[in-house]
Structure formats: structure tokens, C-alpha cells
Amino acid sequence: MEGKPRPAATAAEALHRMDQYVALGIVGQHQVAQKLGLSVTDLTCLGFVLEAGDEPLTAGDLAERANVTTGAITGVLNRLERAGYASRRPDPSDRRRVRVVADPGALAPVIALYEPFYKRLRELFADYAPDEIAVLTDWFSRAADAARTHLAELRETTAD
């Protein structure tokens, strides 16, 4: 499959379009979280719990993936449990740790809210050749690494 012709663009234009997409994503995440009765941080963590599937994350792993402190993850887990989306289970290999598992009914309401958007994105990806998708995947992976580095730097600096 060959990709479709694309208009020329500069890095500055791409950054502008990315800023627009990220802003829409933030608003969208707030709306989804609100519909599920969660905060955006709780929704983010729920997403990681659901993604883990049959390999439940430890609370520490979840904190690391969500870029929150282990202290903050305790509050997140309390709220996810209260809302019926997740629960803590003792780690079978180390009883001092807990694993976070999604409750059986947690996936359906999340899928119901995200599926229409993901359907549109799959339709968009269908317009791209495999080598173009590889570039997009590489870019998103590297951009996520850059974001993680930036978050770590922000945490290291003190507010003036």
C-alpha cells in the first residue's frame, strides 16, 4: 500500500498541530473521566490497569507509569476501589506488595466511551502506508520519552 500525497509542512507547523491535538486530548480526557466519575489521574491509572490485563501491576509500577508518587497512588487506588473499577490483591510472590486488578465490569464503560474515537483513528491510520505508520509509531514513542524526561526535570526544579 502506498501512502497518500501529503502537503509539505515544517517542524513548527507540526508542533502547532500537535499542540492542538494535545489540547483536545486533555479536554477529551476530562470529559471521559467526568462521565466515569473519576479524575483525569484516576482515569489514566485505570487505563494502565486495564492495559496490564492478566499481568496485574504493583502499586509502585502503576505510580511509575502514571508519573505520580507512590503516596498519590494510594489515593488513586482508594478512589478506583470505591468507584468499583479496580481492587488491590496481595502479590503472590511477595505478600508485602499489592497488585492492582481491574474489576470485571470496569472495561465495558471505558470501551463504550473510547470506541467511537478509536474507530475514527483506525480509519485515519488506514490512509497511511505501513512505513508511514512505522514513522508515526516511532515519533509517538520518542515524544513520550521526551515528555517523561521533561516531567522528571519539572519535578526536580523548585517553584520560585
Primary descriptors:
mainly alpha, single chain, three-stranded antiparallel sheet, 160 residues, globular
Number of E strands: 3
Unreliable parts:
none
Proportion of residues in helical segments:
55-70%
Report the portion of residues in β strands: 5-15%
Report what the structure shows:
By secondary structure, this protein is mainly alpha-helical. It contains six helices and three strands. It has a three-stranded antiparallel β-sheet with strand order 1-3-2. A hairpin with a 2-residue loop joins strand 2 (86-91) and strand 3 (94-102). Helix 2 packs across helix 3 and helix 2 crosses helix 4. The longest helix has 27 residues, at 130-156. The chain is globular and about 55 Å long. The termini are far apart. The mean pLDDT is 92.
